[in-house]
Specification:
The chain has helices at 3-18, 37-64, 68-94, 110-125, 128-149, 158-174, 176-180, 182-197, 249-262, 265-278, 284-312, 323-328, 333-362, 365-392, 398-415, 421-424, 429-436, and strands spanning 230-231, 320-321. By secondary structure, the protein is mostly helical.
Length: 438
């Protein structure tokens, strides 16, 4: 072989050696425990079932946990967990899982469903402060651990593994405040226990067993932070005992509508109770919508609180209206959702839109922007709720549902001694809104 031939034969080998090889993407390797479609489907149903149980616990707790900060954090967590549960259920459906009509996916697995119901019932039987204290350690962190542990084959079942990874990230983010304040929640829960018992012995334990119950029941009334004074017989702020003239028609409208939004605490409670009641039977779109509404109303309440602080001083100096949740808390989920949609959401949009326009005209950008976002939310709430109730309400449409909600509200108000049911039946939608609000 000549020298030139030797160089020629060596050249391809040198080029091959010099060519870099890219690493194989890890997401395109088989690893993870669930290796068959059936295994993945079962694992997704398990994850969804636990997430729906946590959803109901969080939703119920938004009513009877009093601390304002905790209500807001619980509402955000509700939205995140519902999105995670629904994503798991949708992916299980792609793999062939099919629920029975009117049932949540996995409800036919009676043993697992019964165990979750008993655990939930026991948690809800505990005093709310103690339940909140236990929430991170006994429910939230275990759900995160379950999503960390139940992996899927990244190559064969990439979609399920992506649902798991995104769910894990969302849960960690949404549970952040509740986990980070765990020690403070434990302390507050212990103080509530001592207050309930009328004593505070050193050996008193936070983890006394609640009564044995097997069916989960939610609260039927909301609780308010002890920093709030409340009034419970009307939503008429200008007629309330603590109303004061803010100095101009614009400022009076602003004060009223900022208070309306702060008091949407009872709207977040209403949508949360509807979610609690309907998890077992409603379609995924309706549950996602109710979870979004719960979170949105928490944002609106927080916006109202901040604007009260910025424009009118101590926000807790302004009394909080409770009549909305007094009535809706006694309704079932379908009826409460209908009542607030037909007689609450519609009534609030016009005044807030007018305030946003006037604020923009005056160059009051903070108010114009805040109420611009809120009215956008409320318009979506009204549009999508009416569509979903028309399609899904068991009575067969929104008109029938609205009539039933009006009658039920009248009976409850009469039972509370606040209004004559026959007289209430004569009120129009605007008058009902003025009485009960959103």
């Amino acid at each position: 072989m000549t020298e030139r031939q030797g160089r020629a034969s060596a050249a391809p080998k040198e080029r091959a050696t010099a060519t870099p090889r890219l690493p194989w993407p890890e997401r395109f390797r088989s690893h993870g425990a669930a290796a068959s479609p059936e295994d993945s489907r079962d694992r997704l149903v398990e994850l969804a079932g636990e997430a729906w149980t946590v959803t109901r616990l969080l939703a119920a707790s938004t009513l009877d946990v009093a601390e304002f900060e905790a209500k807001l954090a619980l509402a955000e967590a509700v939205h995140a967990v519902v999105e995670v549960a629904a994503s798991c259920e949708e992916r299980a459906g792609e793999l062939g899982a099919a629920p029975k009509p009117g049932q949540r996916l996995g409800a036919d697995r009676a043993d697992a469903a019964d165990q979750r119901e008993v655990r939930l019932a026991a948690a809800l039987a505990a005093p709310p402060g103690q339940r909140l204290a236990r929430l991170p350690r006994e429910w939230l962190l275990p759900l995160i651990a379950m999503f960390e542990d139940r992996t899927f084959d990244a190559l064969l079942d990439g979609p399920s593994e992506r649902v798991r990874r995104r769910g894990l990230s969302d849960l960690k983010d949404a549970f952040g405040w509740l986990v980070e304040t765990g020690e403070q929640l434990e302390l507050a829960g212990g103080q509530e226990q001592f207050a309930d018992a009328g004593t505070a012995p050193a050996e008193a334990g936070l983890h006394a067993s609640p009564p044995a119950v097997r069916t989960a029941r939610r609260p039927t009334m909301g609780r308010r932070d002890e920093r709030f004074a409340t009034f419970e017989n009307t939503r008429d702020y200008r007629g309330a005992a603590d109303w004061h003239d803010a100095g101009s028609p614009y400022d009076n409208d602003l004060l009223e509508l900022v208070r309306v939004n702060r008091d949407e605490i009872d709207a977040l409670e209403t949508f949360a109770l509807a979610l609690f009641d309907l998890v077992a039977e409603a379609d995924l779109e309706s549950l996602r919508h109710l979870a979004r509404l719960t979170w949105d109303e928490a944002r609106h309440a927080a916006i109202g609180q901040e604007l009260l602080r910025e424009r009118f001083g101590d926000p807790y100096a302004h009394e909080c209206s409770m009549i909305g949740i007094r009535v809706r808390g006694q309704m079932n989920g379908w009826t409460a959702w209908t009542q607030i949609t037909v007689f609450g959401e519609l009534g609030i949009i016009g005044p807030m839109r007018a305030l946003a326009r006037e604020a923009h005209r005056r160059g009051d950008d903070r108010i114009a922007h805040a109420f611009g976002f809120i009215t956008s939310d409320e318009t979506m709430h009204l549009r999508d709720s009416r569509r979903l109730l028309e399609r899904n309400h068991p009575s067969g449409g929104l008109a029938r549902a609205a009539d039933a909600a009006r009658e039920e509200a009248g009976r409850i108000l009469e039972g509370l001694g606040l209004y004559d049911a026959e007289h209430f039946a004569q009120l129009d939608e605007r008058q009902i809104f003025e009485l009960l609000g959103e």
